[in-house]
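Hey, can you fold this one?
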Amino acid sequence: MVKRSRFTVQGVRTKKVSPKEKNSLPVHRVQDKLFPVSSPVPPVAIYFSPFTYPVSNPALNCSFFSPGPLYLDLNIYRETVIKALIKEQNEDLYRLIERVKFDGKYYRVKCVRFGEWKHCWDLAVRVQFCGMMPGLTFEPRKIIYREDKKIIYRSLVLVNPYELWERKLVEKLWNLRDRIEYLIAKILFHECIHILIFLGKTLPSDFKQTNIFFEFKELLKFANSKKLCPESCGVQYHLRNLVDLCPNFSEHSEEKPELVTELYEFLIHEKYSIKKTDLAFGLPCSNRKISQNYVKLAALKMGPCMEFDKKIWKKEINRLQKDLEKLYDRIDDI
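Sure. Predicted structure:
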């Protein structure tokens, strides 16, 4: 069982500024596309972050997202302050981004040797306004150099602090630069949790794992135990029903059970990440809102349903959302 104490994280200290303070900062509308990094980003698999929506592979153009209101120039944020906020909450996450600049270029963050092979991990972080998605993490792309006996994993994290004008956040931090830095730190904190879990699942078993990876494994084990029934059983039952409605699989496809397991782990993965982030930075979302977002993402990962099954599909989605909310409530009680 996962103990509550293991999820306890010290809150971020923030500075309150008078609402009368004025910020004379440049304002402009940002084009709805991502700018290329120094080296071309290869096609990668997308990992759906808590509030994100799917984009096409290689997913570096968000022109179909609404540009929204006028946006402020992001050049006012300080990387040192953002990293300090993350360091205050978790040393492992800080060490992951300590040498990474937020310019979209890849930086080597880890390199270990196992036998004759060398395993390296490159990470790129880009901060940019782009539609209505706070954060997006790309699953690592594996590059093998057999002659050099080297394996390189490349991950890209996109950070979009578009929620700068959320009422609760404005009340917490009146100063605009403080608010931008706080929001970037919170989003990056969440996305880096995904990266550490990817590291734990990808690198050889002899690799020294982080507490975050062990916590997630413990929670996932608990989420698959009978102790969380009927909530966990209900969620998996509805996932199976939705997969059965998906035309991408034959009736007796062996991939169906694997997809159900993958989707269930995805839902637990996201709950763990957002819970740990909320405990560190505050301003949590309700489990109802979170479950609604995640159910949509899980459904999109399955693919479209047949036209004549849409009513059944929608009913099953609603049932999944209700059971998922109950499951998240149970996890919060741990």
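The longest strand covers residues 117-127. Let me know if you want another pass with a different chain boundary.
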